[in-house]
Give the backbone structure.
Amino acid sequence: MPRAMSATMSTHEIPLSRPDITSAEMDAVEAVMRSGRLSIGPVQEQFEQLVAARTDREHAVACSSGTAGLHMALLALGIGPGDEVITTPFSFIASSNVILMAGARPVFVDICPKTLNMDPQKLEDAITPRTKAILAVEALGNPAYMPEYEQIAAKREIPLIEDCCEALGCAIKGRACGSFGRVGVFGFYPNKQITTGEGGMIVTSDKRLADMCRSLRSQGRPIAGALPTASPATPGNAGSATMGSWLLHERLGYNYRLSELHAAVGVAQMRRFDQIVQRRQAVARMYMERLMSNPDIILPTLPAESVMSWFVFVVRLSTTYTRDERDRIIAGMRRHDVGAADYFPCIHLQPFYRERFGYAPGDFPIAESVSARTIALPFFNDLTEREADFVSQTLGLMLSRENLKRT
């Protein structure tokens, strides 16, 4: 049972997430503003180098979001109409939407109930001649099975795309997330380990793929060095007599660039990344210590030889609880000014996917069972011991209320 709750504990709302922005980020943005170079500049390149080094990759390509990065990765690999890409139904919807954006079809496989990542055996069983890639998600940042997915992809000679949008700083068996398969993609939305406001990063050791993504992110312009130019082809030289390759477009492309302002925030965040991860690990330990003795709660299960940087902290209710009970618990926590949410609703049961593909409840029973009982707790770098106490006690109180209704 939880400790007695103090009526004076909740003096302000405890949000689900809050970005960690310091004077370093503000100063970096101001420096870019004063430079006059707001896009396609040296700060973006510096950000790319920092992320590439952190993930043991040779190349990094900054872009406007993790979604944009995944979309470009698929296109750069030649994925298109008639192709199938195997992925998970337990994820944020973007990991599946990008497959549709490329003109291909997502093929879902059910998850492991402990790790919440795709079951490797079910993944391998789902491969057909139409399978052109595996898009593997580190659900909630958990790196479980990434080595197994890589082995399956290599054996079947199909590319592995690593959706590591929630896993910067995570690792398994000594390898950093983002280093598996042909390509990895990170996201930097404000609730991630680091943020650029909006932004993403493609990482790979395949130069051809990296160059293609650089072209795709900038309206399909020629890959650097592919064509001679009469003058420097940069936006700062727009008044030149000739624009060289700047107004030449070799392929269908997109405006998926990351501005220098966003990149400046990313550089400042990466410079204190170790400190950020240590703090997030400390917050996760606070929750583990407070919740581990509650029999109604299933804590995150981490594989051996793994390192977590903790994107979010998501618990599950025991299998005796229903979705309606979970939803009432979340609503009760919110009434007590505690941010809480359900992470994640299954993709295949989203209205668009049900209408388009005919999915129905029961198609992926493990993912559905997990999804019905997850609760994301407030999680951010400066969450205090007192706030962790209050969140844990409030969750315990809501559980007790639901249990009383059963008697």
The first helix runs from residue 23 to 35. DSSP finds 13 helices and 13 strands in the chain. The chain has two domains: 23-271, 273-406.
